[in-house]
Design goal:
about 210 residues, alpha/beta, Rossmann fold, seven-stranded mixed beta sheet, about 20% strand, globular
């Protein structure tokens, strides 16, 4: 994820509204207690998610990939007052920590936290959703999109994280691709070629694909 100039990235963060105490706590706790803490959305991307959600004012949000709850809280802050966010994750070892953060956020009643494989849970989750944040296993991004597109409201958005994959999407031709890089290349092309949507790939952090259903 460190392929964007660090000084430029720091400048962007320094000109982004500060993390509040709860998000700072989630960041510190993740860094101290959880494997692969770089998976957290973090300050810059988290604020982008929060502001986008506040612009849309979604009634229903779906997130695939809860991790330690940072992005779910950012997204839920933009919910319609009667809205709901459903977040799905496979790692039950983090459940107690994540539920605690949701309680501290004051948004626990608007967040439904489901544990298990997303490919098994998604068919049972009813739409429509106004906003979806896709940040789960990269190998299944295309499958998730196929399951999600009919559950997305007309004019609704999907945000897919890590679509630049630390710049590996620019691997020179002839070099062997790892399975995740190939899956993301296929996903990015799939979105680009789908006439049902319009899209923009944003070079924010590790790449964020913004997709709007027509």
């Amino acid at each position: 994820m460190d392929f964007i100039d660090q000084e430029l990235n720091a400048y962007c963060e320094n000109h982004t509204s500060e993390e509040d105490p709860l998000l700072q706590k989630i960041t510190r706790t993740t860094q101290l207690k959880v494997l692969m803490p770089r998976m957290i959305s973090g300050h810059f991307q988290g604020k982008f998610l929060e502001l986008l959600s506040k612009m849309i004012r979604p009634k229903r949000i779906l997130e695939l990939g809860t991790y330690t709850g940072y992005s779910a809280i950012c997204l839920a802050r933009g919910l319609d007052p009667k809205g709901k966010l459903i977040t799905i994750d496979i790692n039950d070892e983090l459940e107690r920590m994540v539920r605690g953060f949701f309680e501290e956020s004051g948004l626990a009643l608007q967040i439904e936290y489901k544990l298990g494989p997303a490919l098994e849970i998604l068919p049972e989750v009813a739409g429509p959703f106004d906003l979806v944040f896709l940040d789960a296993d990269k190998i299944n991004y295309s499958k998730y999109f196929d399951l999600l597109i009919d559950k997305l409201s007309p004019g609704g958005f999907i945000l897919a994280d890590n679509v630049l994959w630390s710049g590996k999407v620019l691997t020179p031709k002839g070099q062997k691709l790892d399975k995740d890089t190939k899956a993301l290349l296929d996903f990015n092309r799939k979105i680009q070629d789908d006439p049902r949507v319009e899209n923009a790939l944003l070079p924010l952090r590790d790449g964020l694909m913004m997709v709007r259903k027509k």
